Sequence to fold (300 residues):
Amino acid sequence: VPLGLNNSRQGIEVEGRTKLPGEDMEFGVNVVAPRYFAVMEIPLLRGRDFTSEDRSDAPGAAVVNEAFAARFWPNENPLGKRFKNGGAEWRTVVGVAKDGKYGSLGEGATPFFYVPLLQSNERDMMLEVRTAGDPLALLPALRREARALDADVAVTLTTMEEQMAVALLPQRLAAMLLGVFGLLGLTLAAVGLYGVMAYSVSQRTREIGVRMALGARAEDVRALITGQGMRLTAAGLIIGLVASIAFTRLTSSLLYGVGAADPVTFVGISLLLAAVAALASYLPARRATRLDPVAALRHD
Fold:
């Protein structure tokens, strides 16, 4: 099963190619039956799928992925090329499948190949079933069919959604941990900004009193104090964005379906921080407009 816990690797020998010193020639392999690629919706970019003709008495066959073909036959047609995977029999490449995720969602393009079930001695197999309806509703029928074939066979059924939940567990735990630290950082930033602005207001009490005594409106005072806080926020956001972009490679392995430098994420978080900063600046500004100008002028 893709992204499962039971992953197989086999050493290979490519026809006409000498192994380089220290070169890793072990790659992931999956034993599959005909129509596996159609059921799993893995596009075949070249060649064909396995068929019932790929039996044990037929020439060895294999389907490789894009990364496998690019590594061993760059700028060549991989169809018809041959390699061995642990046995004495050469396997001919009959198809090229699109690259996928085999061990984890964060992995890059990894060479991988498939061999037909009828040419393998694999005994521990998984049955992949695609349904147009609710997969949970199909599980009882699958269990009955398996027991009808052999009542002594232990049957474990799961959905791909449950399978993906296991595969995504490390990323989800990391995201939760980073989210907690992010929320803590946001809270500390808001409290810190509020404290700075409250202290600034207290130090400028006399100035505010003079401004209000000379006719400054409450809106002008709020704009003055809030503007100062937002200028500090803008400087912090610029520094934070530059630092975040510089360290995006450290988080790329934890992300799936979104780039480490995703503009939507950066813009959204910047707007959120700006909103929090605006609120933290507005509260001291509102308090400043409630000052009695006479008391403010007497303030030491």
